[in-house]
Design goal:
The chain has 160 residues and is α/β, with parallel strands linked by helices. The protein has three helices and twelve strands. The chain has a five-stranded parallel beta sheet. A four-stranded parallel beta sheet has the order 2-5-8-11, with no helix packed on it. α2 packs antiparallel against α3.
Length: 160
Amino acid sequence: MIQSKQQLHEWLEAELPQYGPRHKNPFYAVTERAILRKHAILLRKTEYHKNVRHRLRHLFYSFRLHRLQNRHALHIPLNVCGKGLKVMHLGPVLIHKDARIGQNCTLHMNTSIVAHGRSGDAPVLGDGIVVGVGAVVLGGVTLADHIAIGANAVVNRSFE
């Protein structure tokens, strides 16, 4: 969780180079990379302002974040993903609010990290996980560090 302005800058410095340089003219920043860069900034700033209890700023950034997430089907809750998250492409990404994702993880489009219907347990993913296109991680699964989940895979058992 981001608890200070310094941590916010560290997290953004770790994530933003993955999306390339910022466009000089913000009116032309409509490429996929520019939208994902903007999403990363809004996600981390919203987390910071929520964690340090800046109510008005949290509401402002939360509104902007939810608007962007709904427009591009990126449903990533606050304080779930560790530092270094990379979303590869615009497209549906669904993560449960109780899931935990480690540092330097990569998510492709059409991925779901969701709780199991009966128990409500959410997945816990380690550091350096790569979730392929269309993959689903389901239930109270625990995955170790540096695992690649293939395209269209359904993971319903732990791998430690």
